Amino acid sequence: VPLAGEIGGYVSVAAVDLPSYRAQLDDIARLLHDTVNTAHAGGLGTDGSTGQPFFSGTTAASITVDPALTTASLAASASGSTADGNNALAVATALRGGSPSVGDTLRGLGSRIGQATANANRNAATQKASVISAQAVRASADGVSVDEEMVDLVKYQHSYEAAAKVISIADGMLDKIINEMVR
Is a pLDDT exceeding 70 seen at residue 32? Predict the structure, then answer.
């Protein structure tokens, strides 16, 4: 039996949406890891080291700056000089380049999440409007209309007054008949 309503929405988000977004974040983390580490490996640290990875871990939950990386082994330079930041520029260029770039991929995910949120909000507003409309229809069908009840009360009041007048006339006629017979 498929779940519906609020609980069904939570189950759908937990079972479908979150794993999808987590996988997309993992893809972005992997792309960031591979892009930066490849560009970083082409440079030299001030201690002359090469090939030192910048990131370790390839998932969104595990990616971190490699703990073995030091300021001396940071390969920001193409020549090993502290005044040379050419490899840092190469890393930045690599992040902006590629198809798709890390930034483009991250913006795309943000856009998809934003669109999904907007759709969910729009659907919730539509559902709320439907509920309000259904409640109004039910209230008009089952509920008491004060105006209609007032019209009925006035109608009953006029009927009562007419009946009272008939009884009053009949009482007067009977009284006259009885009094005429007695004389």
Answer: yes
CA Rg value for the chain: 42
3-class SS at 45? coil
Indicate if 110 and 150 belong to the same structural domain: no
User: Does residue 37 sit in the same domain as residue 99?
Assistant: yes
Rounded (5°) CA angle 47-53-55: 130
Number of domains in the chain: 2
The pTM of the full predicted model, rounded to 2 decimals, is: 0.64
Residue 39 CB neighbour total at 10 angstroms:
21
Q: Which domain range does residue 174 map to?
A: 145-182
Task: Name the strand (E) or helix (H) holding 64.
Answer: strand 64-65
The letter for the amino acid at 88 is A
pLDDT in tens, 58-111: 999 999 999 999 999 998 898 878 888 999 999 998 888 877 888 888 899 999
Q: Are residues 61 and 125 in the same domain?
A: yes
Examine residue 71 and state whether it is found in any structural domain, yes or no.
yes
| Domain match, 114 and 163 both | no
Cβ atoms of residues 78 and 84 within 8 Å: yes
Contacts of 8 (CB under 8 A, 6+ apart): 2
